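Board notes (copied after class):
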Amino acid sequence: MGEPRQPADVGLDSAESEIAGIVPVHGRSLGLGSAVALVIGNVVGTGIFLLPASLAAFGTVSLVAMAAVTVGAIAMAMVFGKLGARIPAGGGPYAYARNAFGEFAGFWNAWSFWLTAWIGNAAIAVAWVGYVQYFARQVVGLDWSGTAAAIVIALIGLWIPAVVNMLGARNMAAFQLVTTILKFAPLLFVAVVGLFFVQGANFGPFNATDGNWVGALSLAGAVALFIYSGVESVSIAAEKIKDPARNIGRASIIGVLACAALYMLSTVAVMGTVPHARLLESSAPFADALNNMFGGSAGGVLMAACAIISGIGALNGWTMLVAEMPMAAARDGMFPAMFARESRRGAPLAGILAGTILTSVMLLVAYASENAFNTIVLLASFTTVIPYFFSAAAQLYWLVTGARVVDKRRLTRDIVISVIALVFAFWMAYGSGADAVLGGTLMLLVGVPVYIWVKAKRGEYGPQV
């Protein structure tokens, strides 16, 4: 049973000419605008709407952590852009790790990202529920604050995007573009206008934890990392991107730069307009910020509506990614074959359904913990950085060994960017905390028997060259 597909060994400039043999042109339905919307839509989920409250627990040191994470995220976006041009194949980090380090490394990256996608969707859903509850309380006068009500709301939020994705990539892209526009504008409004209402007394202490500021910095960075999850979106969906050799890099960098500016400004604005003690208890910090800025509750209701739209948009994009990664791995015999099958509309139904079901189960586990959002975020952050680390390592490997064609004029710059991305991923793994590292490592180890089972069913043993 067959050799795995080997991506063409191409340089950055020749990658475009090689791609025609990987995926038929008619399968590429996402242009640059849709690709940027995919990045922004996946990166800007509901996490940002709850993030200021989560970061307030660490103090203003979290702003330093955000700045450091932003530098790392930009470096990571640049690495993914280069890698997407080198290997414009579906699966992104899976394809890069497999091509550089072998099939088992590829499998483990696919497994880790798959974990990230459906675990992360649970975190998005938890944050989304807080704004649905706020909207229902302020507009309809209904109290949906109980745990049972929260679980029901979250499940509805998970399965609507699943249905949209099952209708095909074009419908998913249209849905993503609309929700991205609707959520970006009001967030930008708070980020810019809110700065005029900032009061220094509202900011909390530099280190609000019981430990030292270095530990607080790392923990805050791990939480902040989750808001940048999605930088790799277009590299994973490469088989659906038009002109991927150019557009993967452009969309990744444009999307991350836009999100970085929005994140930094809006977090400062919220922390500076909502008193620290109140922010710690807030389940809708942006709504509270608007209410403090203009009085009343109308602004908060508007922001809650935008957060609801944002959450659905993010879940829509991540539901696609939770199916795309295993589909790419399944085509190479690294995941069960059912994940490779597509419907007549081009939707990987098995991946969509499996991911959504697992996310639903994760929700039940999350709501049994003391802090559902932070518990899931730290676990998802750890599983996120595994593919990030291997992707940066793959780029560095090709640059320093010359195993692939490199641009010698930009070699030093590309090596520096790769090292920054590699250190960034390592730091984020450390910052996830002992519980997340333990839980994430155990979940990664569960993948090994799956790998053995898949190899046995294919009648393969030993490395496949």
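Comment from the instructor: DSSP finds 18 helices and no strands in the chain. The radius of gyration is 21 Å.
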